[in-house]
RNA sequence: GGGCCUGUAGCUCAAUGGUCAGAGCAGGGCGCUCAUAACGCCUUGGUUGGGGGUUCGAGUCCCUCCGGGCCUACCA
């Protein structure tokens, strides 16, 4: 039995995410996790909220709440949304957990022991009015290059010139607008990634099967300019993991915390530890997923993320792990995604453009979104959400092809044989051909799922559904019933068994509908169809079932128009 | 500016350098009547963004131009 460790990029805490965040990491990760479990493999699927950093502090302040309270609340909100989308995390943790504090401090201590931490004294902008150091992009002013008056300290959005905050004319805090700024000396820890460049480079070069999107971004950072640069891993903030060297104080670093991007990936490990603690399991239960010397030798580790996360997962986090000198599990495969765009533009949290996760769930069941998003996953390039496409795809694939199949066969059986699987008859050539066609397509489906070819897997699954309609059309039990009721009984029995088969195969994509289908067939047999012929004998003659409610109601033109209007911008 | 990705049917996408560039949707025709006016079969539709080159052979490799997107290290 294979063992799969699966992590999804951890969503930031500062608000409810839009659909792009869902399709870029959590949803495909869930698809893969569900598939591997369905195949009988052992799976550890973890995710968490990413809770540290300046934006979290500012969002909390805006909400008028202490940051820890704000994060605890938002964690619950996000956990609830994730549950309602059917995201099957074994644990949904928090990067602010005590487990992550300990592990982050542990890694920093090991890196320091190995000479991979440098203490650097630098000058940063401090805002007296805000009482905090300001990250470059939180400083605004007039661009010295083009005169644009809302240039940010890292770059001018108008002329795209790279800037240093001290270049700005009349700089002010982007938070309060205060011009009472000063440059202060402050000391920070840097992770000496440059010292690990060769090792990282060879490691990346060995990953020849990774998506181009993943490796090209990594190589750019490794080779651009002077090569991989060291990265500051501490910040002058109140909220975060206090800087410590293992469990010891770090002289000179009092009052500082680790940089969010240092502790966030470590949360993958910590979330697994949180899982063990939450379930009353001893530490070796989680360590067997992460420590090569404690049982993780046969684990395959797959990460899912949007392309913006790639540098941290291909370089910074591996540098942390390799640099620790300890046998922690490195990622085996990184599946990265492009962006989902909304009606020709970007989803925008600030402008309320596009559909947010809570809104999506408030208008349609999760499976509608799961199906559309996964079958249109932005694998090769960015993909676009439009209401027309969404309505068309969902109505056709889910309502017409799958839902109507379930409806027509169950209702036909009820009217001719009652709500019990009918007896009699045996397979002819048509049924043999169907089994053969199903087998071919199911094997292809497995291959695509194994390879995380999400769109291709969706296409194949849809083609499997279509086979059911093709069979019914040519078998025509409504005709055979008139001349040969036994044959019609066999055809109907096969059709009803297809519903269970489809539920099992479709469950990674549309888990809620799959559950409804199994419930209607009054079975909980989720055995994977390694033998298709046997799988179609699962429900025997005499087995009672229910005609289910409409599985997928269609999206009407009126609904589509209303939603299009409602979500075009300026969130209520 | 630099780097990377991308451009294939009206739309969304496929195609280890090798038959006539294929699917789904949309459009058109026919069939069926079990079904959510659903399903099935057939079918229209292409100078693969433009131009040049390498090759026996290019959607695929090279050069160049045009369009779209992303990244560029203190947002995460």
Distance between the termini: 49 Å
Report the uncertain regions: none
Quaternary structure classification: single chain
Give the strand order, joined by hyphens, for the main sheet. 3-2-1-15-16
Based on secondary structure, the structural category is: alpha/beta
Rg over C-alpha atoms, rounded to the nearest angstrom? 27 Å
Tell me the total number of β-strands.
19
Number of helices: 19
**What is the CATH superfamily classification of the largest domain?**
HUPs
Tally of structural domains: 3
Main sheet, how many strands, which sense, barrel? 5 strands, parallel
**Second-tier CATH architecture of the largest domain:** 3-Layer(aba) Sandwich
Task: Name the overall outline.
Answer: elongated
- What value does the average pLDDT take? 92
Q: Say what the CATH topology of the largest domain is.
A: Rossmann fold
CATH class identity of the largest domain: Alpha Beta
Helix content: 40-55%
Please state roughly what percent of the residues sit in beta strands, choosing from under 5%, 5-15%, 15-25%, 25-35%, 35-45% or over 45%. 5-15%
Function: Is required not only for elongation of protein synthesis but also for the initiation of all mRNA translation through initiator tRNA(fMet) aminoacylation.
Protein name: Methionine--tRNA ligase
GO cellular component, one term: aminoacyl-tRNA synthetase multienzyme complex
Domain Methionyl-tRNA synthetase anticodon-binding: 421-571
What does this structure look like?
By secondary structure, the protein is an alpha/beta fold. The protein has three domains: 3-114 and 260-337, HUPs (Rossmann fold, 3-Layer(aba) Sandwich), CATH 3.40.50; 117-191, Beta Complex (Methionyl-trna Synthetase, domain 2); 366-376 and 387-535, Isoleucyl-tRNA Synthetase, Domain 1 (Orthogonal Bundle). It has 19 helices and 19 strands. The strands form six sheets. Strands 3-2-1-15-16 form a five-stranded parallel β-sheet, with helices on both faces. It has a four-stranded antiparallel β-sheet with strand order 5-4-9-10. It has a three-stranded antiparallel β-sheet with strand order 7-6-8, with no helix packed on it. A hairpin with an 8-residue loop joins strand 6 and strand 7. Helix 4 (98-113) crosses helix 7 (260-278), helix 4 (98-113) packs across helix 9 (310-324) and helix 6 crosses helix 9. It starts with a strand and ends in a 6-residue tail after the last helix. The model has no long low-confidence stretch (mean pLDDT 92).
